[in-house]
Design brief:
Helices cover 66% and strands 0% of the residues. The protein is mainly alpha-helical. It holds the Pfam family TFIIB. Residues 31-45 have a biased composition (Basic and acidic residues). One of its GO terms (biological process) is transcription preinitiation complex assembly.
């Protein structure tokens, strides 16, 4: 015989309070966890307000910087839980932004070095805070740092102005270094350029203020020096055409070879830019004649008027015969021949003497003299 296993299920029903008035409905008691959490959060924020005030004093920031940073921190963490968040990094990021707003900006490296927090953390949370609170976080410029660095180094206004000049020149030339690096290198170079030895500062001094390695400062200074040399060369080479044209206008013309030889610039550069300047300013650039050069060459050689007149005569004769040599070559050859024709031995000048004045090779002078003799 098989046994029947029956399963009995007892269904319990909740009594309806309407039908069973004796049973009272259960009331859900409100938990105090949210209140406790908000209290803990406010206490923590109060503590961080005190810490922000200490950071402000530690970094010598203006008095209004602390309240601004505290207000930012409270607004940013208003709807967030504080557990699991690097509050220290967020607080320092708020101080970093507030320092910018009160026009006393500090670099991320300075903030990180002084407060022992990583640069990446401060930078990341500074960006997040600025985005969350819709704050315009303009980049720091070297000009904003130079004044503070110079003040901390005890440098005078003259050195500070020179540092501004170097930094602005580097930024105009699009030097890719950061603002603190540019400021530090500019200050170091400006202090070293000073005539007052009391204003000289070592790389270590600047490093301590800017929180940058000595190698970075030295490398940036080397870059600045190379740029400055190239810029000065460009300016120097561009300014020579103006001098060349102005010398013509005051009736003291110099040849392109003279300008190039004395100033160590190529003849082509000066000639090209002289033509451009003359065209742009609509200046009549008349060609130089040997007569304009002979007087100056003779004066520099210490020759008498008789020799000068003879040189004029030889040069004019050669030009009438359409000698194709340049004016400086004709003038040099004419002066050499006139001096050699003089009866006064004190008026004799060698080819080397004439070469030094006219900036022409001895071979060119001798060949032109031989041509003149054949023509004569």
């Amino acid at each position: 015989m098989g046994s029947n296993n029956t399963i009995r299920v007892k269904i319990s029903r909740k009594p309806d309070p309407k039908t069973h008035p004796k049973t009272k409905p259960q009331t859900i008691k409100g938990s105090k966890s949210d209140d406790k959490e908000s209290e803990r959060k406010s206490e923590a924020l109060d503590k961080w307000s005190q810490r922000i005030a200490r950071i402000q004093l530690k970094m010598n920031l203006p008095a209004e910087c602390g309240p601004k940073a505290d207000d930012m921190l409270r607004k940013y963490l208003k709807n967030m839980k504080m557990t699991g968040r690097p509050i220290k990094a967020i607080a320092i990021a708020c101080v970093y932004i507030a320092a910018k707003q009160v026009e006393m900006p500090h670099t991320l490296k300075e903030m990180a070095f002084i407060n022992k927090v990583s640069v990446k953390q401060i930078g990341r949370y500074a960006q997040k805070v600025a985005e969350a609170l819709r704050i315009d976080a303009d980049p720091i410029t070297p000009d904003q740092l130079i004044s503070r660095f110079c003040y901390r180094l005890g440098l005078e206004r003259a050195v500070e102005r020179q540092a501004f000049h170097i930094a602005n020149a580097s930024y105009k030339l699009h030097v890719s270094s950061g603002p603190s690096v540019v400021a530090a290198a500019a200050i170091y170079m400006a202090s070293q350029d000073s005539n007052d030895r009391s204003q000289w500062r070592s790389v270590e001094d600047v490093k301590g203020v800017a929180c940058i390695s000595t190698a970075t400062i030295r490398n940036t200074c080397a870059l600045f020096k190379n740029i400055r040399k190239s810029v000065l060369f460009i300016l120097y080479s561009i300014h020579k055409p103006f001098v060349y044209i102005a010398a013509k206008q005051v009736e003291m013309p110099h040849t392109l070879k003279e300008m190039a030889f004395i100033n160590k610039v190529s003849v082509k550069q000066i000639g090209r830019y002289a033509q451009k300047v003359a065209e742009a300013l609509r200046i009549d650039a008349d060609p130089i004649t040997p007569d304009q050069l002979i007087s100056r060459f003779c004066y520099r050689l210490g020759l008498e008027r008789a020799v000068e007149r003879q040189a004029f005569h030889i040069a004019n004769a050669s030009y009438k015969l359409h000698v194709s040599s340049g004016p400086s070559v004709v003038a040099a050859a004419a002066i050499y021949m006139a001096s050699q024709d003089s009866n006064d031995r004190s008026q004799w000048r060698s080819v080397e003497d004439v070469k030094g004045v006219a900036c022409i090779s001895t071979a060119t002078i001798r060949n032109t003299c031989a041509l003149f003799k054949n023509i004569r």
